[in-house]
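Section 5: illustrative case.
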């Protein structure tokens, strides 16, 4: 399975599991029953796990590539480290935002 099909599959799974969480309540309509709520919570937990997994893989890739680059060119290690920290902070920011969106309804 190539990389594009894996990403597409993960995206489809995420959208299927997170869609009940992001559904808006309509006024005057009763909320979901207990079994439906459990599926909403399950979808939220699954989506949160996917978010954390993706962030961990991204930060791990950044770290390994940065260390490899520093080993090849030690004279620019400071610049590489700075860029690595900024990229990791951006990934963590996007991860926290996605977790908040995912878990807002639970």
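Designed sequence:
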């Amino acid at each position: 399975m190539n990389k594009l099909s894996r990403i597409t599959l993960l995206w489809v799974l995420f959208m299927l599991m997170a869609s009940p969480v992001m559904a808006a309540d309509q006024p005057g309509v009763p909320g979901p029953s207990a079994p439906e709520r459990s599926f909403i919570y399950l979808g939220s937990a699954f989506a949160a796990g996917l978010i954390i997994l993706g962030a961990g893989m991204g930060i791990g890739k950044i770290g390994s590539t940065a260390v490899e680059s520093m080993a090849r060119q030690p004279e620019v290690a400071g610049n590489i480290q700075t860029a690595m920290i900024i990229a990791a902070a951006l990934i963590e920011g996007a991860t926290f935002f996605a977790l908040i969106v995912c878990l807002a309804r639970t």
